[in-house]
Amino acid sequence: MSRAVAVVGVGQTHHASKQPDVNCAEMVRIAIDKALLDAGLSHEDIDAIVLGKAPDPLEGIMQPEQYLAGALGAHMKPIIRVHTAGSVGCTTALTAATHVASGLYGRVLTVAFEKQSEGNAMWALSPNYAFTPPMVAGAGGFFAPYCRAYIMRSGAPSHIGAVVAANARENAGRNEHAHLREPISVEDVLASPMLWDPIRFLETCPSSDGAIAIVMANEELAKKGPRKPAWLKAGATYTEPMYVPGRDQVSPQAGRTCAKYVYDKAGIKDPWNEIQVAEFYVPFSWYEPMWLENLGFAPLNEGWKVVDRGDQKFGRHLPVNPSGGVLNTNPIGASGMLRFGEAALQVMGRAGEHQVPGVKTALGHAYGGGAQYFSIAILGTEL
């Protein structure tokens, strides 16, 4: 990136199964107003808006950038729409950052949302290919075989997914904005119904209503703000086809390449010891050990050992998803931006009860489609 970019404001709604008291426009505006207040700015200070969300049929609102133009404060301002499936939130944030880095705009407001209660994501995400029986129900049905493949090739014990789920819920209990906060134990998870072998009910993400907004600024404007910013050290998005001979669907090449690029750009040689917090996109618990390997935090087939030792828990070596992550809050279109925003809050020291002490560098990550779209950001306390 040619110019330095910083996060200067973050705002998010509370997340819940249903938010019947607000429509999409009102929900988005709540997050925007919080982000602007956090940054000490008003709509007049914003040069452009970048909006992201998951497929339009999830709420039945086509071209939401038109419907939401007023709520977004886009009067006489450019607005850009981004869509890369589940990774869209993080991709949207990086798109906004690119527009600041280019020098085209000084401050950009980026927003992501989902109101799943007004649609049916379960069936919207159930592929029905020609000449094949409809055997897959929801995203979990699609990703469960990849999780089984990981277990087979790594030799991971069957309780690992339950350990991830219980730990994520404990983390969510510290996050006032999280959707699911009630404590659960490993035993509770193992006793919950099997939905898609090996994914149990308590090992899968909820359907959430919610929104997040982030204000980004160039170096000059960021240093004028009322709060310490989070500097974007590196960011990238990589993609690969869903179906191609020889593709590693357990540890996709696009994820590995994306991680290497941002580490090289940020000057990180050893992510396990140089990054203090990681916000992974984990919609199903088994993906936590899988991403630990894919992103270079653990050797091949040993991500589950990190979980088994508890090294990724809050207060341990590398807290993963101290916010509770996607397993406990999942407004799909916003989930990736929540990873970016939560990483920024950790760097700024403003994550509240789930703040990890002494964070200098944090990672935000998202994936989407058939584990084919990847977006990763590295945020830090220093330029």
In summary, what is this structure?
The protein contains 13 helices and eleven strands. It has 383 residues and is an alpha/beta fold.
Explain how this protein is built:
The chain is α/β, with parallel strands linked by helices and 383 residues long. The chain has a domain at 5-120 and 206-222: Thiolase/Chalcone synthase (Peroxisomal Thiolase, Chain A, domain 1, 3-Layer(aba) Sandwich), CATH 3.40.47.10. 33% of the residues lie in helices and 18% in strands. It has helices at 24-39, 64-67, 88-101, 121-124, 138-154, 160-172, 186-191, 219-222, 253-266, 271-274, 287-294, 303-309, 332-348, and strands at residues 5-12, 48-52, 79-82, 107-115, 194-196, 199-200, 209-218, 230-239, 277-279, 361-368, 373-380. A nine-stranded mixed β-sheet has the order 3-2-4-7-1-8-11-10-9. Helix 3 (88-101) packs across helix 13 (332-348). The protein is globular and about 55 Å long.
Average per-residue pLDDT, rounded, comes to 95
Q: Can you tell me the CATH topology of the domain at 5-120 and 206-222?
A: Peroxisomal Thiolase, Chain A, domain 1
Task: Using the alpha-carbon principal axes, give the shape.
Answer: globular
From the coordinates shown, what is the CATH architecture of the domain at 5-120 and 206-222?
3-Layer(aba) Sandwich
Radius of gyration: 19 Å
Class of secondary structure makeup: alpha/beta
